[in-house]
Design a protein that fits this description.
- The C terminus is likely disordered.
- Strand 12 and strand 13 form a beta hairpin.
- This protein is mainly beta.
- It has three helices and 16 strands.
- The radius of gyration is 16 Å and the shape is globular.
- The strands form four sheets. The chain has a seven-stranded antiparallel sheet. A five-stranded mixed sheet has the order 1-13-12-15-10. The protein has a two-stranded antiparallel sheet with strand order 4-5.
- It has one domain: Jelly Rolls (Sandwich), CATH 2.60.120.
- Bound molecules: 2-oxoglutaric acid and manganese (II) ion.
- 2-oxoglutaric acid (AKG) binds next to strand 9, strand 11, strand 15 and strand 16.
Length: about 210
């Protein structure tokens, strides 16, 4: 069976809805104008307490191929690939971004995972943002700053369904509904890319009924 490739390139309109089955994905290429996005990139790079986490995959410990920081309320711990992160406090910069995104999407977020891809050798492996703490239909708002990187998606059950698009400086990508339960995403390595910061705003459900990770 032929693979259905969805190539999402340059969009002419302000907002673009990706036509993917079992997914609700929307993209705003210029959510922040270029100058504002430049300013936010340097501010977040400076203000964030970056750490390189270890994850356990099949019983083996690995350093993640990027730096990150988890920001949220003091009661929040976030489990990710058998690893629990303690939440850092909100800065004025991050709160202002959160408010702007909430105005755009109509959703409320209470946490953000910040990733710093130092260069093209940094990456993010195939995964879904489907941890129990995020509830059954997570809403994920993803702001990209810095070097444009490819964002690949693949359907979990129909292997013929794939998508690829570039996440531009200042862009916002919104995923909701069945997206996390039916699709995985990743950021592949890329030769000669400069630095990139990505912020995924999320909602942690206090009473999610699942095990607390650790
Ligand atoms: O860097 C990105 O655009 C995606 C980040 C991501 O998928 C995650 O942090 O869960
Ligand atoms: Mn993700």
């Amino acid at each position: 069976m032929p693979t259905k490739q969805f190539q999402h390139g340059i969009f002419e309109s302000q907002t673009h809805v990706l036509q993917l089955p079992d997914a609700e994905v929307e993209y705003w290429p210029e959510f922040y104008p270029n100058d504002d996005a430049n300013h936010l990139y340097s501010k977040i790079l400076d203000e964030t307490q970056w750490r390189q986490d270890t994850v356990t995959v099949y019983g083996k410990q690995h350093l993640t191929p990027r730096l990150s920081c988890w920001v949220g309320e003091p009661w929040m711990d976030y489990s990710y690939s058998n690893h629990t992160m303690k939440a850092s406090a909100w800065s004025a910069t991050l709160l202002a971004i959160k408010q702007r995104i909430e105005r755009q999407t109509g959703d409320a977020f209470n946490s953000v995972l910040i990733n710093y891809y130092r260069d093209g050798a940094d990456s993010n492996g195939w995964h879904s943002d489907d941890e129990p703490e995020l509830g059954p239909q997570p809403v994920i708002a993803s702001l990209s700053l810095g070097a444009a990187r490819d964002f690949k998606m693949r359907h979990k059950f129909d292997k013929t369904l794939k998508s690829s698009m570039s996440l531009e400086h200042g862009s916002l990508l919104l995923m909701r509904g069945a997206t996390q339960s039916h699709w995985q995403h990743h950021i592949p390595k890329r030769a000669r890319a400069s630095g990139r910061i990505n912020l995924t705003f999320r909602t942690i459900v206090a009473d999610h009924g699942g095990p607390k990770g650790g």
